[in-house]
Design goal:
Blueprint: H1 4-42, H2 47-84
Helix pairs in contact: 1-2
């Protein structure tokens, strides 16, 4: 069974990774959202174009939700680390 210190070290690694993933997902979601808006301006009036824009919008929202989930994971790791150090 791992020691408390080993668990804390592993949680710190997970927290760091989750923060990096959160930032990457948020950046990608924002970029996709901007691209969806730009594409939307180009394909106005085209049913298939609007469908594509909606699909990109769904992907952007999914990335934003993933970023929020990664932030939650990081906070959960922090809470556990604080509890383990008591």
């Amino acid at each position: 069974m791992p020691s408390i210190q080993e668990l804390i070290s592993t949680l710190q690694t997970i927290k760091h990774s989750s923060e990096e993933l959160s930032n990457m997902a948020a950046t990608a979601g924002s970029a996709l959202n901007g691209q969806a808006n730009a594409i939307g301006a180009l394909v106005r009036g085209s049913q298939s174009g609007q469908t594509a824009v909606q699909a990109v919008g769904v992907a952007a929202r999914s990335l934003t939700q993933a970023a929020a989930s990664m932030k939650t994971l990081g906070r959960t790791c922090d809470n556990y680390i604080r509890s383990a150090q008591k």
